[in-house]
Fold each of these.
Amino acid sequence: MSEFLAWVKQWFGVDLSGYSLIRSGKKRIRILTKEAAEFDVKDVIRGVYLAKKAPYGYIISVEGSYIIGRGASRHVVELGEEEFGRWMRGEDIAVELPEKGVYLVKFGRAFAGSGYYNGEVLHNLVPKSRTVEP
């Protein structure tokens, strides 16, 4: 968890130390408030799915993009209306960004998950089951 917290702080400029993070499976991370973490319950999934480990950092979930994005000072890409529509359909977006890595995607005040920028294209990391039909 400390690796993830350090990555979020360094990459997005966000300090998540006010929350509790828990593992969910081998690679997933869930986030919950410190108060909610105090409840010791069995057989219940706690918290909100935040991220999953990937070879290039972490894939941030749609809900996680909002939690992290509202305080992020860097690595957030704001799309226009046409681009955002394509993003919501699961398409990759050709953009120019400062550096390779994971970016949070935003349209107005709405966050819509994360993408990986390879130097040419922002690859959509939102699961196909969460996209809209064309």
Amino acid sequence: MILLKEEFFIKKEVVVGSILEGVITGITKFGAFVELPGGITGLVHISEIADEYVKDIHDLFKKADQVKVKVLTVENNGKIGLSIRQAVEGFSPNKRGSNHKMVAVNKASFEDKMNRFLKDSDERLLDLKRNTESKRGGRGSFREAF
């Protein structure tokens, strides 16, 4: 395999462990594609977006956003694995959820979550009770008349 001069410099710039600036070119349910300097595209898997659980990447980023990424892998077939969460200063690989503020996450208290759960649960039980009573022949059913 013969590399052109431009390809050599691009490949040399994308080294595992280096931190680069890039632009998000596409977002899927499993990750975000980031264009690096030199026109090379890499993938940031959804697990490498933030320290917190990310359900939808669209909540945090949109196309054409500038991001700082860390190169995790460069495979022979041209695939490049990237990480946004590891590119942030203060990242510690053995400690998820470090002190840095990368994204705003809804931090409801335990009591708020529990109250919301109980309210939803009560509403569902009430709906279920209404549906099953009418099917079992509750008040005023035809069977009770005889």
Amino acid sequence: MKPFLVQNRWIILSIILITPIGFYSKFYNGYLHYWVNNSLGGVFYEIFWCLVLALFFRRLTSFQIAASVLIATCILEFLQLWHPPFLEALRHNFFGVTILGNAFTWSDFPYYFIGSFLGYFLIIKLKPVPVSTEISSA
């Protein structure tokens, strides 16, 4: 069996590439910055989490991973309508806002779907195919 890092090198490399792109989308200050900061970043967020799940949950299919990430993100979006003290405390720092969000917006949902869709196809391309240990008798 190949070591974990070798077997998953393309997923790990993709995570290493998508993470700074996602963070940069939050700080981008150029043309269409409002859209990049508040909407397009959702695409990178979905792809990131699809890759993370693909890395650690190898038995899940690409569809199961993308659907799980999409459902979880939609739940998190609706949680932004709820403001209990413990969630507000989490939302008062950069990582809390980045992961949990701070304002419900219907317009975020299409970007979640696009990101999960792209994550689905990326996982298909990158996820290592399990090698069967059975010896077939021919």
